[in-house]
Amino acid sequence: MFILNYKPSFYEDLEKIVKDKIIRKQIIDKTLELENRAPIGKKLKGNPFWSIHVSNFRIIYEMNGSNIDFLRIVPRKHDYREI
Question: Which residue ranges make up each domain of the chain?
């Protein structure tokens, strides 16, 4: 069992970038999957973050022991190395 932490930047991105309410729900549902099954997605090269794809977005998160910190939501075209 993992503890999920949502950073303010995650919520800001959810409101500003993700306009479609259905996709917002898909993003939240995908994050909740990690509570029981982590990691999912792929490990990003050159940094400690993981990425999950939902529609045209990437959910960027970091694992610290039993804690999962959701940091950002970025468009898939965005270069994650800038995070």
Answer: 3-75
| Owner of token pair 């045209």 | 56
Cis peptide before 48 (omega within 30 of 0): no
User: How many C-beta neighbours within 10 Å does residue 34 have?
Assistant: 20
Confidence of residue 6 (pLDDT cuts 50, 70, 90): very high
Q: CA 70, CA 80: separation in Å to the nearest integer? A: 14
Distance CA 8, CA 22 (A): 21
The class (CATH top level) of 3-75 is alpha beta
In terms of C-beta density within 10 A (0-12 exposed, 13-18 middle, 19 or more buried), how is residue 59 classed?
buried
The confidence score (pLDDT) of residue 83 equals 63
Please tell me whether the overall predicted TM-score, pTM, comes out greater than 0.90 for this model.
no
What is the amino acid identity at position 61? Answer: Y
